[in-house]
Design goal:
Blueprint (H helix, E strand, L loop, with lengths): L2 E3 H25 L3 H26 L5 H5 L1 E5 H5 L13 H22 L7 H26 L2
Antiparallel strand pairs: 1-2
Helix pairs in contact: 1-2, 1-5, 2-6, 5-6
Length: about 150
């Protein structure tokens, strides 16, 4: 049990976004419904943008080593309990896949909402997590609209 550095939190967020991309990339290959496949392709592309945005915080020097190493009062176990997605496989319908995706997006949005409660984050980090949270909300809306069409 240990507190995490800001860099570790950003890296964990990158991991979530990469897993989301992989989920959508796999999902679009499983189904044949063009409208749902199109949505899954869009979501996969957006997840890569999220990942690249987070990676840029570390690689482009937006944060100092001191800021990245700063420990936050967040236990590692807290992060790992957030995103636990059911597995998808051939034979799943578009609706089944989107229901799993919706759960994943809601959990990711909740994670970013929780990260926004840290008052010792720099404004640019707060803005990144706000932006990511809003994008997850957008994913939720897109998935819910598609699910209503089933």
């Amino acid at each position: 049990m240990r507190n995490l550095s800001l860099k570790e939190i950003i890296e964990y967020s990158e991991k979530i976004e990469l897993e989301s991309y992989e989920f959508y990339a796999k999902a679009k290959d499983i189904i044949n419904e063009e409208e749902t496949k199109s949505l899954l392709t869009l979501l996969a592309n957006e997840e890569t943008e999220h990942y690249n945005h987070l990676r840029g915080l570390i690689n482009r020097g937006h944060l100092t080593a001191e800021e990245l190493d700063a420990k936050l009062m967040l236990k590692e176990e807290t992060l790992t309990q957030f995103i636990n997605t059911d597995k998808i496989e051939k034979g799943f319908s578009g609706k089944q896949i989107l229901e799993i995706a919706l759960d994943r997006e809601k959990k990711t949005e909740q994670l970013y909402a929780m990260l926004l409660t840290f008052t010792d984050l720099k404004p640019n980090i707060i803005n990144v997590f706000k932006d990511l949270r809003n994008q997850e909300k957008g994913h939720i809306e897109k998935i819910e609209v598609r699910l209503k069409n089933y």
